[in-house]
Amino acid sequence: MSSELAVLTSRYEFRERLWGQRILALYQSGRQSEALAAYQDVHRLLDENLGIEPGAALRALHEQVLRSDPALDCPAAQPVAGPVPRQLPPAVGAFTGRAAELAWLDEMVAAADMTVAALVGTAGMGKTALAVHWAHRVASRFPGGQLFVDLHGHGTHEPAAPIEVLTSFLRALGMPSERIPTDVETATATYRSMLAGRRVLVILDNAGSAEQVRPLLPGDPDCLTIITSRRQLTGLVALDGARVCVVRGLTPQDTSQLLTRLLGADRADAEPVAVAELGDVCAHLPLALRLAAARVAGAEGSIADYVSGLATAQTLDLLAVDDEPRTVRAVFELHWVGWRLPRLEGWESCPHRGSTPKSCVIAPSRWCSTCVRKLEARPGRSPGWPTGSACIARRCAHGYGRRKLMRVSVRAPHRATRSGSPSWSGRIVSCAGRTRF
Q1: How far, in Å, are 7, 27, 38 from residue 1 at the CA level?
Q2: What value, to the nearest 5°, has the Cα angle with vertex 230 and ends 226 and 233?
Q3: Kind and range of the H or E element at 16?
Q4: Where in 156-241 does DSSP place strands (E)?
């Protein structure tokens, strides 16, 4: 701009307004000495050719430049107006417990250097419900909006491709569809540019891998990304500075409070022992507890009768409701896909293996600590499994045992899929005859 004004002042050398614009442009470009020199040029030009001094407006501008008047500074750039996305799904009703996890998330917001936080844990632990509940609590602290996406990293759907998610996010941020890039690198750069200067909360739910997540991370330090996953996402921790919180089952006290809220205080208080047993049978797993409470609330009979039926059942169908596809069986089927191990190397020589029923290969009644560590070290497996999960619990210094909920699952009868091949439970049982312990 200052160079263009220099051309104009040379062409129209007696127009003080153009000289003023040139002096101001030079000053606002950080070239104060050149601005003062330009004033001396116009002062000399007017004096030598017309015998006059510059007008009052030009003299006042000269004084402002001399004392670096803040009034001459460029006005702060205004943020580009655009839609503010509010994509959070509804918060789950009767949310209970999770005080430690909520406090941890609050710390992530307060930490100036923290931009990526991950909630990881076994299927059905309520990671999404926790993230969404917390996000609604702090939504006002992210005036730039909230973005949410289910990445389908674990499930029957194909995992969401980063370019698909970026396209959706860019559209939500106000970019016309015809301008959205079609390659991941350019779309990521555009996405981060649009988030620059905005305080946005991004929730990436059900992530399958660090590679799926990484292009979706904002670049602005004022943004916060919350990821939920069944995997540990160690790549994000190592390379992207993410912090991880392992989400485990509810405490017995929180389990009792949740069931009381779901079943009603009168009914729960009438059978406190049965309520405690129901929580134990469901391994304090939020999904199992909610589905069990729905079955109890809609059925005749006592809570104790339902618990007795569930504890002795040969199927997990008692933890399902008619209009809800997310059953405990379905969750466990997806969760166990990566754990079908016909033979665990080193099991035969394990000194703590004890006697293990041949009716179960994947979830025997006792695991030794050494073998558990071998399972957890397998790449790409779910975090915290088997330890700390809904599947097994530590029983002694050297070993673990199956929780009651898994005792139901491994007794599930052989089933066949629509294609005629054995289901996950059938394959577990069919492996038993070929595996030595």
Answers
A1: 10, 12, 15
A2: 65
A3: helix 16-28
A4: 200-207, 224-229
DSSP string, 158-177: PPPPHHHHHHHHHHHTT--G
In angstroms, the CA 95 to CA 100 distance is 14
Q: Fold for 2-72, please state it.
A: 1.25.40
303 closest CA partner among 327, 328, 268: 268
Specify the pTM.
0.65
Q: Considering only residues 127 and 324, tell me which one the structure prediction assigns the higher pLDDT.
A: 127
E strands along 210-270, which residues? 224-229, 243-246
Three-state secondary-structure class, residue 86: strand
Tokens of 406: 């898994």
State whether residue 105 is helix, strand or coil: helix
Q: pLDDT tens digits for 34-78?
A: 999 999 999 999 999 989 999 999 999 999 999 888 888 866 544
Residue ranges of alpha helices (H) inside 196-285 are 210-213, 234-240, 252-263, 265-270, 272-281
Place of tokens 């005859």: 433
DSSP 365-423: SEEEHHHHHHHHHSTTPPTT-STTSSSEEE-SSSEEEE-HHHHHHHTPPP-B-TTSSB-
Q: Is 204 helix (H, G, I), strand (E, B) or coil?
A: strand
Cα separation, 398 vs 246, in Å, equals: 22
Which fold would CATH assign to domain 99-246?
A: Rossmann fold (3.40.50)
Q: Is residue 432 predicted with pLDDT exceeding 50? A: no
Closest CA to 131 of 334, 121, 162: 121
β-bridge partners, 145: 200
266-306 confidence digits (pLDDT tens): 999 999 999 999 998 888 889 889 988 988 887 778 999 88
H/E run at residue 116: strand 116-120
Backbone angles phi, psi at 180, to 5 degrees: -75, 125
Nearest to 80 by CA among 168, 254, 191, 198: 198
CA-CA-CA-CA torsion for 170, 139, 382, 279, nearest 10 degrees? -150
pLDDT digits (tens, 9 = 90+) for 85-111: 999 999 999 999 999 999 999 998 887
d(CA 24, CA 4): 13
